[in-house]
Amino acid sequence: MKCYRRCSIRYRKISQVSADGAYDTKACHQVLKKKGIKPTIPPRSNAGFWENGHPRNEAVRALKSGHLEEWKRAVGYHQRSLSETGMYRYKKLLSPQLALRDYDAQVGEALANVKARTKL
């Protein structure tokens, strides 16, 4: 029991998912709705309206009226790029390859990699 308390991970509830237009499908929206997650997915360029009252229709309306950028700002869609940058840095940090060319920089990169791995 002692180890269980120490090793247990507490999960946060996901309140919003930001994804690109490739995820603008009814299946994705249904899964997110079922889990109580707000989707912030811009509609595809040829998107049509869904059933009356669907939250996605607001994004389609913005797309058709040429105000998609304003919609993205209003719903916080641009936070997606911050998470993508964070994941990119995480993957680069834990990569088995060194990206830098200068020897001293490679030493620093390798040490940062080792330090990050020991924290996991």
SSE-based structural type: mainly alpha
Query: Overall mean pLDDT score?
Result: 84
Strand content: 5-15%
Low-confidence stretches: 1-6
With strands numbered from the N-terminus, the spatial order across the biggest sheet is 1-2
The count of β-strands is 2
Secondary structure: helix percent: 40-55%
Identify the overall geometry: elongated
Largest sheet: 2 strands, parallel
| Count of domain modules | 2
Compressed to H and E, one letter per element, the order equals: HEHEHHHH
* Rg, nearest Å: 21 Å
* End-to-end C-alpha gap: 22 Å
Number of helices: 6
Overview features:
2 strands; mainly alpha; 2 domains; disordered N terminus; 120 residues
Q: Can I get a quick summary?
A:
With 120 residues, the chain is mostly helical. 53% of the residues lie in helices and 5% in strands.
